[in-house]
Amino acid sequence: MAEVVIVGSPEDAGTLVAAEIVRLVGRDPQAVLGLATGSTPLPVYRALRKQAAGVDLSGVRGFALDEYVGIAPEHPESYASVIRREVVEPLGLDPELVHVPDGDPERIAVSGGEYERAIEAAGGVDLQILGIGTDGHLGFNEPGSSFASRTRVKTLTAQTRRDNARFFPSLDDVPRHCITQGLGTILRARHLVLLAFGAGKAAAVAGAVEGPLTASLPASAIQLHPHATVVVDEEAASQLRMAEYYRYAWENKPAGQGL
Ligand code: GLP
Fold this sequence. Notes:
259 residues; alpha/beta; Rossmann fold; 7-stranded parallel β-sheet; 3-stranded antiparallel β-sheet; 8 helices; binds 2-amino-2-deoxy-6-O-phosphono-alpha-D-glucopyranose
């Protein structure tokens, strides 16, 4: 079962996860981070910026989860731009070491395989940061995605396009396709850290952590992972049946174990 940590605020979540990343980079300055986009991981990146002052992150390698298909990497809302703006630049990562799937429509037949090989060549992802869609998607693995899937093209659901329309001038501007690490790719990371905040994520979180293992709720795939941590605020935790147990387990966790 995933370890569930219920925190007071997104800032607290950011502090906790950033500390884990600092520990990881302390052990391995060339650690491989799996980077997520969306608003959820931002407190982690902000906290990391503070906590990593004085820590050399220039050897850290990164792989983004996903990218839109059909908008140029220079587009301000491409995940290549978002990762550069929100992660690489503020943290002083080496842009050459941070990869985003290639969403060029001309190359999507081959770019998924290339991305998989690049992750393998890096020795795999050490710590994968994850958000969750309101429909339970991970990366852009929409409901129905195979647990064995690898990086490939997917069609976005109407709900995801509506959810993400806030980043674009209008709904019509939201791409219809994406390239995303598969659930099988994500499950190969050594540590999964899924974050979720707000009541809008409560049903998806409860399904992912306590619901049946089902491709209809892609994030339930985390139940297959031997080291998955779910960090949620009170609102996102509000539909968890075993919340009291998670609090008890966290409060009584042996010191010094990290996440
Ligand atoms: C997008 C991303 C996901 C992210 C999700 C939730 O669909 N591809 O990786 O988890 O949005 O976004 P937010 O964190 O803004 O709620």
